[in-house]
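Inverse folding, one chain.
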């Protein structure tokens, strides 16, 4: 392929362009799984080639349960992407995880219902390990950058992924709190597990926007967007510093994920 990139960024809710890249090209990619969420912007950040895609589309027209996760990951793989940084908006399931804070998931609970979560096909079965679903190298880097920038970043978090696009009922929200999970969102699964099948390093940066409905106040899209708008600048500052510090070579197990996943 003519265009190549080494780092991919999925723009989450509120982040529809990277605002970071120079000398950009906007490209369309067809995949065996259909169209990705939108065109992909490829550009330079210092001496790194970056690919950016808004997972909900540039105008936020694709709800979480209708995102073509397989096409998105395949498109990044086709471009040569080795690492994916994935900002997203989440709700909090714990009092100390306040709106405006950030969280770094290390585990997830999958409560999605209708999503195609594997590149397994007839004749090929992939039993991918997601015991530790996220790249440890990228996680360590993000924690250090957040600490340097004095950003409140909760680590070792469990992310409950629900189907959406609706928010939870009070009963559901209270149930999710009993699992001892920390945050709740709609896009992590199957995005992270497909990245693992593609042997791409993946890390999620979760921007906490609300207390979900367990706290006695119904969540509204307006409230979420107001908090996101305040965190967008912090998210972009994080991305700026993270990209600059990512090693040129990988020292993690992500690139060998398929070595013991297929019979």
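Residues assigned per position:
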């Amino acid at each position: 392929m003519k265009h190549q990139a080494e780092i991919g960024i999925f723009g989450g809710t509120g982040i529809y362009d990277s605002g970071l890249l120079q000398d950009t090209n906007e490209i369309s990619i067809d995949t065996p799984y259909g169209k990705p969420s939108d065109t992909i912007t490829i550009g330079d950040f210092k001496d790194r080639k970056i690919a950016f895609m808004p997972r909900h589309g540039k105008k936020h027209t694709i709800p979480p349960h209708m995102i073509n996760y397989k096409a998105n990951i395949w498109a990044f793989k086709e471009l040569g992407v080795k690492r994916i940084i994935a900002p997203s908006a989440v709700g909090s399931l714990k009092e100390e995880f306040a709106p405006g804070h950030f969280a770094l998931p290390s585990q997830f609970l999958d409560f999605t219902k209708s999503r195609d979560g594997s590149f397994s096909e007839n004749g090929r079965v992939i039993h991918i390990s997601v015991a530790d679903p996220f790249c440890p190298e990228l996680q360590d880097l993000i924690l250090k950058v957040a600490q340097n920038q004095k950003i409140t970043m909760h680590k070792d978090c469990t992310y409950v992924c629900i189907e959406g696009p609706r928010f939870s009922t009070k009963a559901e929200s209270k149930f999710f709190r009993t699992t001892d999970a920390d945050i709740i969102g709609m896009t992590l699964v199957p995005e992270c597990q497909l990245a693992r099948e593609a042997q791409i390093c993946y890390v999620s940066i979760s921007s906490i926007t609300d207390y979900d409905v367990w706290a006695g106040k119904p969540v509204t899209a307006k409230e979420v967007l107001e908090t996101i708008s305040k965190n967008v600048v912090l998210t972009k500052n994080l991305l700026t510093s993270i990209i600059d510090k990512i090693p040129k070579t990988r020292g993690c197990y992500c690139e060998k994920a398929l070595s013991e996943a297929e019979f």
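Residues 24 and 43 are 4 Å apart (CA to CA). Residues 7-256 form a domain with the Rossmann fold fold (CATH 3.40.50.1580).
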